[in-house]
Design goal:
- This protein is mainly alpha-helical and 105 residues long.
- The chain has one domain (30-105).
- It has helices at residues 7-27, 31-56, 62-92.
- Helix 1 runs antiparallel to helix 2 (31-56) and helix 2 (31-56) runs antiparallel to helix 3.
- The longest helix is centred in the C-terminal third of the chain and has 31 residues, at 62-92.
- The mean pLDDT is 89.
Protein backbone atom coordinates (compact mmCIF):
# COMPACT_ATOMS: atom_id res chain seq x y z
CA UNK A 1 0.00 0.00 0.00
CA UNK A 2 1.26 3.44 -0.88
CA UNK A 3 1.49 5.83 2.09
CA UNK A 4 1.61 9.01 -0.03
CA UNK A 5 -1.19 11.20 -1.32
CA UNK A 6 -4.40 9.28 -2.10
CA UNK A 7 -5.33 8.73 -5.73
CA UNK A 8 -8.64 10.53 -5.27
CA UNK A 9 -6.83 13.83 -4.64
CA UNK A 10 -5.10 13.60 -8.00
CA UNK A 11 -8.34 12.67 -9.75
CA UNK A 12 -10.20 15.60 -8.17
CA UNK A 13 -7.44 18.01 -9.17
CA UNK A 14 -7.36 16.66 -12.73
CA UNK A 15 -11.16 16.83 -13.02
CA UNK A 16 -11.20 20.44 -11.80
CA UNK A 17 -8.47 21.36 -14.28
CA UNK A 18 -10.20 19.53 -17.11
CA UNK A 19 -13.60 21.14 -16.59
CA UNK A 20 -12.02 24.56 -16.08
CA UNK A 21 -10.31 24.09 -19.43
CA UNK A 22 -13.54 22.98 -21.10
CA UNK A 23 -15.39 25.96 -19.63
CA UNK A 24 -12.67 28.36 -20.81
CA UNK A 25 -12.62 26.80 -24.27
CA UNK A 26 -16.38 27.06 -24.72
CA UNK A 27 -17.00 30.50 -23.23
CA UNK A 28 -13.97 32.64 -24.09
CA UNK A 29 -13.63 34.53 -27.35
CA UNK A 30 -9.94 35.45 -27.16
CA UNK A 31 -7.66 33.07 -29.07
CA UNK A 32 -4.92 33.23 -26.42
CA UNK A 33 -7.29 32.19 -23.62
CA UNK A 34 -8.65 29.40 -25.82
CA UNK A 35 -5.09 28.16 -26.32
CA UNK A 36 -4.46 28.33 -22.57
CA UNK A 37 -7.64 26.32 -21.99
CA UNK A 38 -6.46 23.60 -24.35
CA UNK A 39 -3.13 23.47 -22.50
CA UNK A 40 -5.01 23.15 -19.21
CA UNK A 41 -6.94 20.19 -20.60
CA UNK A 42 -3.74 18.50 -21.76
CA UNK A 43 -2.10 19.02 -18.37
CA UNK A 44 -5.08 17.47 -16.60
CA UNK A 45 -4.68 14.40 -18.81
CA UNK A 46 -0.99 14.28 -17.84
CA UNK A 47 -1.90 14.32 -14.15
CA UNK A 48 -4.27 11.40 -14.69
CA UNK A 49 -1.66 9.39 -16.58
CA UNK A 50 0.99 9.97 -13.95
CA UNK A 51 -1.33 9.26 -11.03
CA UNK A 52 -2.65 6.01 -12.49
CA UNK A 53 0.84 4.92 -13.44
CA UNK A 54 2.09 5.59 -9.91
CA UNK A 55 -0.76 3.76 -8.20
CA UNK A 56 -1.33 0.86 -10.59
CA UNK A 57 2.22 0.13 -11.78
CA UNK A 58 4.63 1.85 -9.37
CA UNK A 59 7.78 0.28 -10.83
CA UNK A 60 7.03 0.93 -14.49
CA UNK A 61 7.40 4.17 -16.44
CA UNK A 62 4.81 3.94 -19.23
CA UNK A 63 2.70 6.77 -17.83
CA UNK A 64 5.73 9.01 -17.56
CA UNK A 65 6.73 8.35 -21.16
CA UNK A 66 3.19 9.03 -22.41
CA UNK A 67 3.18 12.26 -20.41
CA UNK A 68 6.46 13.34 -21.98
CA UNK A 69 4.97 12.62 -25.39
CA UNK A 70 1.88 14.70 -24.57
CA UNK A 71 4.10 17.55 -23.34
CA UNK A 72 6.09 17.46 -26.59
CA UNK A 73 2.91 17.48 -28.69
CA UNK A 74 1.48 20.32 -26.57
CA UNK A 75 4.64 22.39 -27.03
CA UNK A 76 4.58 21.98 -30.80
CA UNK A 77 0.84 22.69 -30.86
CA UNK A 78 1.37 25.87 -28.86
CA UNK A 79 4.12 27.04 -31.21
CA UNK A 80 1.96 26.51 -34.29
CA UNK A 81 -1.09 28.08 -32.63
CA UNK A 82 0.86 31.18 -31.58
CA UNK A 83 2.19 31.56 -35.13
CA UNK A 84 -1.36 31.34 -36.47
CA UNK A 85 -2.60 33.84 -33.88
CA UNK A 86 0.18 36.29 -34.83
CA UNK A 87 -0.79 36.02 -38.49
CA UNK A 88 -4.47 36.54 -37.65
CA UNK A 89 -3.57 39.60 -35.61
CA UNK A 90 -1.50 41.03 -38.46
CA UNK A 91 -4.34 40.48 -40.91
CA UNK A 92 -7.35 41.56 -38.82
CA UNK A 93 -5.72 43.52 -35.92
CA UNK A 94 -7.76 41.50 -33.43
CA UNK A 95 -7.57 38.08 -31.83
CA UNK A 96 -11.25 37.70 -30.98
CA UNK A 97 -12.83 34.66 -32.57
CA UNK A 98 -16.04 36.46 -33.52
CA UNK A 99 -14.21 39.24 -35.38
CA UNK A 100 -12.35 36.85 -37.68
CA UNK A 101 -15.10 35.87 -40.08
CA UNK A 102 -13.31 35.54 -43.39
CA UNK A 103 -10.50 33.13 -44.09
CA UNK A 104 -8.90 34.12 -47.36
CA UNK A 105 -5.36 33.61 -48.46
Amino acid sequence: MNAGIPLSYFLILAALMFFTGIYGFLTRRNLITILMSVELILNSVNINMLAFNRYLYPHKLEGFFFSLFVIAVAASEAAVAIAIIINIYRRFTTINVEDVNEMKY
